[in-house]
Every structure is written in structure tokens, then in C-alpha cells.
Amino acid sequence: MKPLAAIIFKDIVIEMRSKESISSMLMFGILVLIIFMFAFESSGLDKTVIGPGELWVAFSFAAILGLNRSLAMEIDNDCLQGLLLAPLGRGELYLGKVASNFTFMVIAEFIVLPVFFILNNLSFDQRFLGIVGITILGSLGIAAVGTILSTISANTRMKEVMLPILQIPLSVPVVIAAVEATSQILNNEKPEISAWLTILAGFSIVYLTVSYLVFEFAVEE
Amino acid sequence: MLSVITMLPALYMIFLFAPTEATQGNTQRIFYFHVPLAVIGAYGSAILLFTGCLGFLLTRDLMWDRFAACAAEMGVVFTTAQLLTAMMWAKPIWGTWYVFDSRGTLQIVLLLIYIAYFMLRAYLPDREKRAKLCAVFGLLGMVDVPINYLSIYLFRTQHPQPVISPGGGGVDPDMGKTLLVSSIAIGLLYAYFFVRRLTIAKLEEEVDYLSQVAAAHE
Amino acid sequence: MFALESEDIRKTFGHFTALAGVTLSVERGEFLALFGRNGAGKTTFLKVAATLVRHTQGKLRVEGIDISEEPEKARRQIGFLSHNTYLYRDLNPVENLRFFARLYGLKEPDKRIAALLERVGLGRRTADPVRAFSRGLHQRLGIARVMLHDPSLILLDEPYTGLDANAVEILNELLDEASRAGKTIILTTHDLDQGLRGATRAAIIDRGKVVFTGKAKDSAIRDAYASYIRGGVNR
Fold first, then answer.
1. What are residue C205's DSSP bridge partners?
2. Cβ contacts of residue A209 below 8 Å, gap of 6+?
């Protein structure tokens, strides 16, 4: 098994045992949806207008939780140093962690998404599939930037609390593109999402590349 | 000194020389401050911050880290000033403190990134670590700017909004000249502040070092 | 070929100089004990050699491989043990070692894993998650992890700290075995006797420089260390 695959496999086995990451992301995501439900129930605002934003607020904050948990596991017993000693490039290590984080995020989101549809009385038609696609693409971007930022924030005195401060401004393009695309899919017969897909894809490619190149500086002692 | 010299004619031109704009009246004159502050201050700082971060990652010379920190500081100040001038303009014209157009949103996100950079700096006490991690974050942040611009621009095209800018209608040649002079004046002001701040940063570091040495000798 | 060749290795953290020019050559099969006060630079030097910390200046070669140019190739030859064990609490010993085996690209490691676990006295605890282990058992598994990929250069940073008597014995046996098998060992410690026990050579680092090297069995090292402790070594 190649080292990169070994990292993902190891993370999956640990998650299957402890179930900490996915369950906390899941709970948090659903709680956000419920809060939105109560908060906007009496306002009479159109669900299709708020819906996309609500979904991605839930996803964004759940992602931050997941990213912090993932890194906390590597800090425990200084496991990250163990990974740094291995004959593995720093960039490869980054990609391995992105893959793990992405996997757990998507699994949690695949459960939150149907709940979102149910709470908002939406039927599970083609639109559901379209939004699944957007979710996957958006999560890749968030995982790409979040993995390196969580490594940076772990070094600060504020530790995990620093992550949202760093991550949210940088994730703005992903959130805008994802929300707009989701909105298009929900509300339009013929959704025009090509521009948004380009941004989501472009964001992921750019950040995966840049982070791959500079990850070394983020983990060096 | 030089910046003061250019500032005076700039102020003259802004307030007396440039013709009064038809619809917006004298409030429009904020334009001559706002635009250079935005372009030189906010975006110029972004380019400088990117350069500083890249410079540090390539050379590991702490000078680049100081450079980047100064650029970020200038960025915060000038972006805030730019937003304030936008607000000063918006209230009399539109009656609201703020209008969510694409440029404004981009500026706010940029300001948030500058502030995040500073928070990161503040919570990293170790010199070398701070330089490394801030360089990485600064780089990631500045790479975000063009992507942000694109996404906000596309957002605007899908949700057309009135083009509101203090630019007003018509490009009167006298207005053009005024803009040029004020741009030069603000540019020089920026350069002056930047160089001074950079010098102070170097001194701060030396003081830091000496106090560490002094503490070690006790 | 030298197992480790360090030429004028320097490392500064901001204004603090941790290593001020360490020049040291360790031959294959040597067992070097490295002594020095806290903050003298022992740990930093070991970490530079293990490629965990990047040196500011100088060259370092492990088994002829320049660690700046080919760090991954060098890491394959290096085993590093500090007081952190790098073990995942939710996995059991076998899973932990299998993971590291995969990281190092070892083919069919199960036999070796089983043998090592038996050797460090964990033969009966292979199915328990590491979470349940005491500190001593943690350390023993850590020792197994270091030896797993059969590194030719073994670096140990104060390995005896926090070990119970059993674990100390196991570690010493394993180190002796490794030494006899021709592996090179560099060990840092505060305890003079423990350090000199299996060592062939000894050195003292003070303020980022090597201030004394000599044969471990010579009495010179004891005298040098004694005066170093009192403050200052005759350079």
C-alpha cells in the first residue's frame, strides 16, 4: 500500500472506531439547520431564498469542526512528527490529510443534505443529485484550504479557535459559488451553473497546488 | 517632504480646480481620495504582501517577513480608510451607510484577510515560526484575492446592481487631471509611510534582540 | 563511509543560536553517547539529523546522502525516538506498526511485527488499543516502532526518561543487538553511567558546539564531564 493510501486508510480505521469526527460534524450540521428553521419560521421568508445559504453555513461550520478534530488526533502523542520522519514528501502528506478530511466531510454532508431536503419540504428529484455534485466540489475546496490552515492555527496560542478566523475569509469564493449554484439548481428549470463550477474547480486546483508546495513551511519545527 | 509638496496642489485641485459634478455635487470630490486609497492602498498592499510572503518563503530572510507585516499593516489602514470614504460618499448620495456592490464586498473580504493575518501574528510568539506561518497564510490569502474578485464579479452579473461609484458621469479632462495628481499624492504618502514603518520594524526587532540578550545575562 | 557526517551545522531560532557550528563524524557501527546540559543543543542536533528541523547553515550527510538534497532517501535510513511515541491511541499495536510499515514501504511486515512485539514484551497485548497502555508499555511499543524499518542510523533523544526498569533492560538489549549487527547509534542523555554503558564513543555539546569527544571507556570522558558540570570545559 502506498504511503498516501496508508494515511487515508489509517484515518478511516480510527474514525470507524472512535466515530468522533463524522458524528460531531453531523450533529452540528443538523443543529444549524434546525436553528435556521426556528429563526426564520415566523419571518415568512421564502425557503428557496434562504435555503442555499443555510445549507452552506451548516456545511462550513461543520467542516471547521471536522478539520480541528482531525488535526487534534495528529497532535496527540505528537503523531505528526512521526509522519514527518517517514520517507514521505511533505506535499504528499498534505494530500493524504486532505483526502481524509474530504472523505469525512462528504460522509457527514451526505447525511445532512437529506435532512435539509426534508426540513424544507423539497422532493428528492434531479435537483438533489445536482446539489450532491455541488456539495462534493465545494467540500474539496474547503478541505484543501482547511487542511493547511488547521495546521497553521494549531501552532498558535489560540489553537483551534484560530481556524475559523483564518478559514472563513479565504473560503468566501467557495461559499459564494456553492450557494449561487445551489440556488440556481433549486430555483431554475435550466440552472446556469457553469461559471460557478469553474470557480469551485479553479479554487480547488489553485489551493491544492499552492498548499502542496508550501505545506513544508507549515509543519516544519 | 516630497509627499507634502504633492499633497498641497492635490488638495487644491480636488477642492477648487475640479469642476463640480452634475448630479452628485461636492460630495463627489471624495472620489479623488477614495479611488487612490482603494487602488494603491488596498490592492497595492495586497501585491506587496504577496511579494513579502513569497520573498520569505524563497529566501528565509527575516527582512521579507518585516516587509510583509508592514504591507499588511498599510493594507488594514488604507482599506479601512477606503471603506470610510466610501461610506462618507454613500450616505449623502444613497441615504444608506453602505451599499453591497461587488467592489465593496471584495474590499471587506480583503480587510478581513488583513485582520486575520494580524491576529495570526499576534498569537505566534516565536519569531521564526511566526515568519514562516504568516508567510504561508499571507500567500494563501493573496492568492484568494483574484479568485474572490472573479466570484464577486460573477455574482454581480447574475444579480445586476446599479453601478454606484463616485466616479459619476462623464470623464471631464479636468477631473482626470485631478485624479492623477491625487493618485500621485496618495501614492507618495503610502510610500513614505511604508518606508518609515519598515525602518521602525527593523528597530523594533533590534530592541527585541537586545532585551533578550540583556535578560539572558541576568 | 561515515554513518553521519556533519560539517559546521548551524541553527538559529530567530536571535537564539541553538547550534553554533557542529562538526562531527560518526563511523558505521559506532555507538555515540552525546552529553550536554539542557539547551546545549543535543536535541536540536538530533532533530536536524532526523530532518525534523532544517539547519540554517552547513551540510549533513547520513550514509552518504545529503539530507538537504534527498531528505526522503535519508529518512529511510534513520530511526528516531524521543519521549513522544507517535502512536495512535485508537489503534492496537499491530495496526500502529502496520501503518508505519506501510509508510516505510516494507513488504509483508507481519512476521517482523509479530517478532518485534514479542521482543519488547507486548506479545499478549496485540489486540488492545494503545489507549489502554501504561507509559512503560507505550515506550516499549515506541522502541519497536523505531526498529521496525531496520534503520542503519538510530537516533535516541533521552530515551531512558520515564522508562521502568524492565523497559530499560529491553532497550539496552535491543541497542546492544543493533550495535552488534553493525547499526550506528547516537544517544543523548543526562545520565553519564547509563549513556556510557553500551557506548563506544562519547562527546559533550555545550552551547551549540562539540567541546569534547573521546572513547567511551576512557576515563577522560568522566573527567571532562565532571568539569563541564561544574561549569566550563577546557576547550
1. C210
2. none
Q: What is the pTM (predicted TM-score) of this model?
A: 0.89
Residue A168's SS3 state is helix
**Closest residue, chain A, to B142 (C-alpha):** A170
Inter-chain touch C129–A17, beta carbons under 8 Å: yes
What are C73's three cell numbers?
532517501
Give the three-state DSSP class for B16. helix
Phi, then psi, of B125 in degrees rounded to 5: -75, -30
Task: Please write the tens of the pLDDT for every residue from B85-141.
Answer: 888 777 777 677 766 666 778 888 999 999 999 999 999 888 888 999 999 999 999
Q: Decide if B75 contacts B140 (C-beta within 8 A).
A: no
- Under a CB-based contact definition with an 8 Å cutoff, are residues B154 and A196 in contact? yes
Q: Which residue has the cell 509508510?
A: C103
The three cell numbers locating residue A216: 513544508
Min Cα distance B209 → chain C (Å) is 6
Interstrand relation of C78-81 and C153-157 (parallel, antiparallel or unpaired): parallel
Interchain proximity B144–A148, CB inside 8 Å: no
ipTM of the complex in this document: 0.90
Window 130-159 of B: residues touching A by CB (8 A cutoff) are 132-133, 135-137, 139-141, 143-144, 147-148, 150-152, 154-155, 158
